[in-house]
Amino acid sequence: MTTATLAFIGAGNMASSIIGGLISNGYDPERIIAANPGQEALQAMAARLGIKTTTSNHEAIEQADVVIFAVKPQVMKTVICALETTLQNVRPMLISVAAGVTIHSLNDWSGGGLPIIRCMPNTPALLGCGASGLYANDQVSDTHKSVADTVMKGTGITRWLETEEAIDAVTALSGSGPAYFFLLMESMINAGQQLGLTPETATALTLQTALGAARMAAEGDIDAAGLRRQVTSPGGTTEQALNRLEQGNFRELVQSAMVAANQRSCELAKQD
């Protein structure tokens, strides 16, 4: 399975980022095929990545050991149901990166009995800085998991989940999480301008500060709370700012936001 043939159903940004990560990590592009109804996306992907392409989902799956479904959640049922016979004949491992589509539905639509992995990536995967949570059904072996890790690690880190319900928590944390940081950055940029900085300076300083803080947290051996304490001098400017955030129930607001995202993820899963 380390030389598995991979078929991508869908040729959008997420598929492109996963394939790009695979190839940059040494995966043979000859063992990757992407299927998409539109020729333009396929031609661009083939030219940039050197992979095989086809407009036929059936043709792609017939060559595959692993099928990665990278289509929008609202069309997933239609796409998979149309492929049921081919999937049952070939019996590949399936990986879905669609939000809100449960293992139960994926199993039902594909005819049952196939190894299926549900994956929740996030948009920084497009830069190789993503975070993905994965959950596998009982048909998935350790070898299958190793292949799934190979597929997704080109886009960032992976974490295996013990329950499918944990996918909803991953959605609330890392799936939706980039938008939380974008909102904070947007707010800091606006506040910087109100304090007299030019838009260009406020933007540059905000983005570099966010990048630097993330790297300190990711690359050091001190947790986020410890880093916060390190940069908060008693009676200083940072303490004043953090006190105001705490007075506004910043922590409780973040918790409430993530609970709302988790609940919505649960609702979407029930609708698939």
In short:
The chain is built from 13 helices and eight strands. It has 272 residues and is α/β, with parallel strands linked by helices.
Written account of the structure:
With 272 residues, the protein is of the alpha/beta class. The chain folds into two domains: 6-163, Rossmann fold (3-Layer(aba) Sandwich), CATH 3.40.50; 177-269, ProC C-terminal domain-like fold (Orthogonal Bundle). Helix content is 56%, strand content 13%. It has helices at residues 13-24, 39-49, 57-62, 73-81, 84-90, 103-109, 142-153, 166-175, 177-194, 199-219, 224-230, 237-247, 250-271, and strands spanning 6-9, 32-35, 52-54, 66-69, 93-96, 116-120, 130-136, 156-160. An eight-stranded mixed sheet has the order 3-2-1-4-5-6-7-8, with helices on both faces. Strand 1, helix 1 (13-24) and strand 2 (32-35) form a beta-alpha-beta unit. Helix 1 packs across helix 7, helix 8 (166-175) crosses helix 13 (250-271) and helix 9 (177-194) packs across helix 10. The longest helix is centred in the C-terminal third of the chain and has 22 residues, at 250-271. The protein is elongated. The two termini are 31 Å apart. The mean pLDDT is 94.
